[in-house]
Write a structure and sequence with these properties.
The chain is α/β, with parallel strands linked by helices. It contains 5 helices and 8 strands, in the order βαββββαβββααα.
């Protein structure tokens, strides 16, 4: 058993979400599906109650807790991508599966979970500091999905 596991609250679709994540992200899997042993406020005995899953190596649990606590941007997964192809693939998988775009590399999946699809070049630019970070930051502020070529150009000062 893990010492720390992220618990995500879903209305009733924790298993669907976990299966989507397992199919979409590397080093991800659905590890176990647990059914309720009795009735609970938003479900019946035998309904899926929790799902143990992994997203990019991070242990998570999805709880089908009902509509009381919806997801917010206060929690997000930040996924580091290596290039534009990986950025596009992950972004398009989330947005194209009923999700929504946001600003600066953020999007939401159809279950309301927020994702930051962040190319490493952007993270490296911010870590470099100074003018390089400022230029990359200014370029990022104009984007929804991050454009790697534009970030790289900003880093160089082109």
């Amino acid at each position: 058993m893990n010492k720390n596991t992220i618990c995500l609250w879903y209305d009733k679709e924790a298993e669907d979400a976990a299966r989507f994540y397992a199919e979409t992200f590397p080093d991800s899997a659905v590890n176990a599906v647990h059914k309720a042993p009795g009735d609970f406020p938003d479900g019946k005995a035998g309904d899926v109650l929790t799902v143990d899953f992994t997203v990019c190596g991070v242990p998570c649990m999805g709880l089908n807790g009902g509509p009381t606590f919806p997801q917010t941007e206060a929690f997000s997964f930040q996924i580091a991508t290596e290039d534009q192809a990986e950025t596009d693939r992950l972004w398009n998988a989330i947005v194209g599966n009923g999700g929504t775009e946001s600003e600066c590399g953020w999007c939401k999946d159809k279950w309301g979970v927020s994702w930051q699809i962040t190319p490493r070049t952007l993270t490296e630019a911010m870590a470099a500091g100074g003018d390089e970070a400022r230029r990359a930051f200014e370029a990022m502020m104009t984007m929804r999905k991050i454009d790697v070529a534009k970030i790289d150009a900003a880093r160089r000062g082109d």
